Amino acid sequence: MTTNTAVRFEPASSSPATIRVASYLRVSTGRQAESDLSIPDQRRQIERYCAARGWTIVEDYVEPGSSATDDHRPAFQEMIDAALAPPPMFSIILVHSFSRFFRDQFQFERYARKLAKNGVQVISITQDWGTTR
Known about the structure:
This protein has 133 residues and is α/β, with parallel strands linked by helices. The protein has helices at residues 30-34, 39-53, 74-84, 98-101, 105-116, and strands at 20-27, 56-64, 92-95, 121-124.
């Protein structure tokens, strides 16, 4: 007796979509630019961090010689505009430390909430704030 049994093949599970990252690199002083917080050093550390996780950097936003005490920073504003455009071209803004993004905690939280509403998260490679990624 032969039994015809339909066999259903599931496609091989593909890897999850690549996480797309924007790096934000900033120094406020010439002294920082020459020390271990230099733009090239921040970039190298962020590239290693992404490589270890299989993340892809899709854009670098570089702000040499700008203070993070306010949001009057051209590269910062360009990055925020890109992050808030539907759909955003990246889901993570990666910084060396949160102070690179904003020094004022209230302003940091304001931007973080605004970005989160569009699915974008701010993550530091040196400070863990209980992120989900």
